[in-house]
User: What shape does this take?
Amino acid sequence: MSDYKKRFNEWLEKLPAEDPLRSELEKMKQNDSEMQESFYQDLAFGTAGLRGKVGAGTNRMNFYTVGKATQGIADYICAHGQKAMDKGVIIAHDPRHFSKEFSELTAGILAANGIKVYTFPDLRPTPELAYLIRKLGTVSGINITASHNPKEYNGYKAYWDDGCQVSSEIADGMTEKINAVDMWNGVKKCDYEEAVKAGKITVLGASYDRMYLDRIEKLAIHSGSELDLTIPLVYTPLNGCGSIPFREMLKDRGFSNWKIVPEQENPDPDFTTVGYPNPEDPKAFALSEKYGRQFGAELLMATDPDSDRFAIEIRDDQGNYIPLNGNQTGYLLVNYVLEGHKTAGTLPAKGAMVKSIVTSTLSTVIAKAYGVEMFETLTGFKNICGKVPYLHEHGYTYLFGYEESVGYAACEDIRDKDGISAGMLVAEAAAFYRKQGKTLWNVLQEIYAKYGYFAEDEPNIVLEGIPGAERIKRMMVWLRNNLPTEVAGFKVDKVIDYQNGYEDIPAQNALRFFLDNGTWFAVRPSGTEPKIKLYFYSNQDSREKALAVNKAVKDDMLAKINAVE
Assistant: This one.
């Protein structure tokens, strides 16, 4: 009997008769492919925590897989001694199906293991959790969220005491403990409400939300009469956690002419009016554009369901809404932060910014022009924000960090991407430039003209399930075995394979290619989604030429990779 059928039969035998998941198991008897997808492996725990579809099975998010993971993390914390247990764990959740229930289960398990627990009365943004880990001095943090994934998914982000998502070393230690847990009989539990009454779980009040907002608002570069605070804005939280904190931030900063998309203002686990709740996808802005046209909005802003990602659309000279990719928003933010510090005379002698290896190098050019060093790390904010201690040790002042997948970290005290603070700075920048008679579109064109005409494109190939995962592996193997010497008629000058690490950058399954015409591109499998991700960048003597060259290189490489069966 195959392993997945053995796991299925074990669940069929041990799952309580009254458990709602039992009806899913009964249906799986008639659907072998669904059975295999649900049971062929344990849901992998890594530096991104857990991420998967909600449902029955070892490869799904449910009370048993979440319970097993939490007990393993509890065992890992307890192994660090009473001091770590007393520091405690802070837990948050997003609006998805079962997020609240999973968060209460998690809190109850940790409390039953003698670990101090902090929770919130309702959903909260990921960056607020990341900030409060260090503010409260907890040993760990957990957020029940699947970030921007479709509604069928949920997830479990794990943090350590530095406020970053867990490193590979810590994730490996947690995984060892998790694997040793018997999910049926080895999980200690206590009732959430009873644990709150007993003082084992502390529910944090509004003053902690205020701490987070106060810290964000200290990032302001310009204020008051320097800004046109009547600038018309539209914001959507995409039915996630951002609605209340983003609204409070706009009010605190004095913006007086803004609108929240009403259909997407309140939590909706089905994301009914959005579909795929990823602000990186321009389709998520459909309703924002509708209200933007009615309202005359100059800037449209969106955060994803846990409010760590942030994206925008801006108006061009013809009044059309133009979606910016994460790199372009990054250019605006890098430029605004550096320009603001220089004008104010607060640019540090050793300033530093951080970006991922797959993020555009135009921001490096901008940073260099201001005498600021741009450091590169692997993808993910555990790496980008994880660079902060190194920067401090070497006398640098952290100014900003970002990556192309619409993630921005403007504050070193919030060691994860933060859509609320990014939104504040972009809205502030738009209001600042408007006072000068310019739009963000004008500023973006000025950046290209001054620092180089770059083009950016980040296509993904989505390949779900077991066949998809296997095909992604074959694509990467094929690419390594058939490294191109030319692409779209341009010579490949250099290839960097990060599989075994490169210089001071640790290992990652990623390849980067540099062509002889100012173009480079990268390929890597996603760590959290069923897709292979590609990144294309070209620097030419006009934006039009850069876009054309980039498209030619992209089309050639996509044809090559898609040909791998």
